[in-house]
């Protein structure tokens, strides 16, 4: 199987990192004795650098820097030995790679950070190579350096490592274009005619008592007063007693006196 030059370079570097041979250890020791930040002529990992936007043209630069991988400097106890000041570790909420990019960009402030990649580490330090580009040069691709201060605003790959990457999202124009291509599989709603069932009655809903139907109550007659407040019904006397009955509003007259007057 034939491979290109970049595949051979990647394979060789991976073997060096896994084996930790004499060549790799000599390189790391030389980096440790050298300055913490130095500009180099060409990248150590050419394959990775070209993937991240590096080109061998005027206006591009490569800087190798190291960062301490141990505990960060804790705050000094100038305000007294209080629990809010007296602790050993300060979490900067940034990855080592993002810290290196910001440090390099503070020194090379006339250039913009394209990206960075890991090149090695030992017991005390991690080493990264940062790719820089000068936006004032005509040979530099302006789209890669259009946004100023990318390393300080979390717009590089290392800056997005602690959260969701914004680069993976499509912009609104592409989102609308992709939405129009989606085929929606649905059937339109059509109201079907209601046909009375001919078979057995459907089961009653859950929670209802058996034999009890939910029907609208018929309009009942107006309610009457309770029996306790009603007047007693009139008493109908017999025919032979009706003659002797006296109306409550008339005077009491004896029947024999009434005959005498007639």
Describe this structure in words.
- 25% of the residues lie in helices and 12% in strands.
- The protein contains seven helices and four strands.
- A four-stranded antiparallel beta sheet has the order 1-2-4-3.
- The longest helix has 15 residues, at 5-19.
- The protein is elongated.
- The N and C termini lie far apart (153 Å).
- The mean pLDDT is 76.
Return Rg in Å.
50 Å
Helical amount = 25-40%
What's the tally of helices? 7
Q: Strand fraction band?
A: 5-15%
Q: Tell me the name of the CATH class of the domain at 35-161.
A: Alpha Beta
Sketch the topology as an H/E string, one letter per element.
Answer: HHEHEHEEHHH
Low-pLDDT runs: none
Instruction: Sum up the overall morphology in one term.
Output: elongated
Task: Fill in the CATH topology of the domain at 35-161.
Answer: Ribosomal protein L15e
Main beta-sheet strand count, sense and barrel state:
4 strands, antiparallel
What CATH architecture label of the domain at 35-161 applies?
Answer: 3-Layer(aba) Sandwich
The strand count comes to 4
Output the strand order for the largest sheet: 1-2-4-3
| Average pLDDT | 76
The structural class is: alpha+beta
Separation of termini?
153 Å
In CATH, what is the homologous superfamily of the domain at 35-161? Ribosomal protein L15
């Amino acid at each position: 199987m034939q491979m290109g030059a970049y595949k051979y370079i990647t394979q060789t570097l991976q073997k060096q990192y896994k084996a930790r041979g004499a060549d790799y250890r000599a390189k790391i020791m030389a980096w440790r004795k050298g300055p913490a930040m130095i500009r180099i002529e060409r990248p150590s990992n050419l394959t990775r650098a070209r993937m991240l936007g590096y080109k061998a043209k005027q206006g591009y630069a490569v800087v190798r820097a190291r960062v301490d991988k141990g505990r960060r400097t804790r705050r000094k106890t100038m305000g007294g030995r209080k629990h809010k000041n007296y602790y050993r570790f300060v979490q900067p909420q940034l990855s080592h790679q993002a810290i290196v990019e910001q440090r390099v960009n503070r020194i090379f402030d006339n250039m913009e950070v394209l990206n960075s990649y890991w090149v090695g580490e030992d017991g005390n330090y991690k080493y990264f190579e940062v790719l820089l580009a000068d936006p004032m040069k005509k040979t530099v691709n302006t789209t890669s350096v259009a946004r100023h201060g990318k390393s300080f605003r979390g717009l590089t790959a290392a800056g997005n490592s602690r959260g969701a990457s914004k680069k993976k999202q499509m912009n609104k124009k592409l989102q609308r274009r992709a939405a129009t291509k989606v085929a929606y599989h649905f059937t339109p709603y059509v109201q079907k005619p209601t046909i009375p069932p001919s078979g057995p009655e459907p089961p009653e809903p859950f929670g209802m008592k058996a034999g009890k139907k939910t029907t609208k109550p018929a309009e009942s007659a107006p309610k009457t007063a309770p029996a306790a407040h009603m007047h007693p019904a009139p008493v109908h006397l017999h025919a032979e007693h009706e003659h002797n009955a006296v109306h409550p509003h008339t005077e009491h007259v004896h029947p024999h006196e009434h005959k005498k007057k007639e």
